[in-house]
Amino acid sequence: MRMLPICFMALFMVGCTSLSTQVEKPTQASSKLKHQPAKKSKVSSYVQLYTKTEELLGTPFKDLGIVFGESCRTTRQDPPASIAVARKNMLAKAASLKANAVLLHQCAILSNHNCYQTAICEGSALLTTK
Fold this sequence. Notes:
Blueprint: H1 3-44, E1 48-50, E2 61-73, H2 83-96, E3 101-110, E4 117-128
Parallel strand pairs: 1-3
Antiparallel strand pairs: 2-4, 3-4
């Protein structure tokens, strides 16, 4: 009977140590992901952002599909989610589709189970011919 509390204490300590290593791994992976959008931002400078459909009148274009970008604030200590960063990520994804324009549908700041705060922008990737 005396061994039962000792066994529970040992299991508790083993469980807590494995939990802390699981929490640290996503943090390291997310720090690696934060550096990748900076490389894509040079490509996205060639993509023009349209906010209104009227701006495209008279311009022939081909719709390449829906693109979105996001900015995530994982904890309260992280900087706030930014719509500007989400928009830049959206333009980078459009550039990877060989688009030269994006028609912005909407941007919003939300919260979900993965991020404390998320900024998301959605638009249509377009290939315009002038």
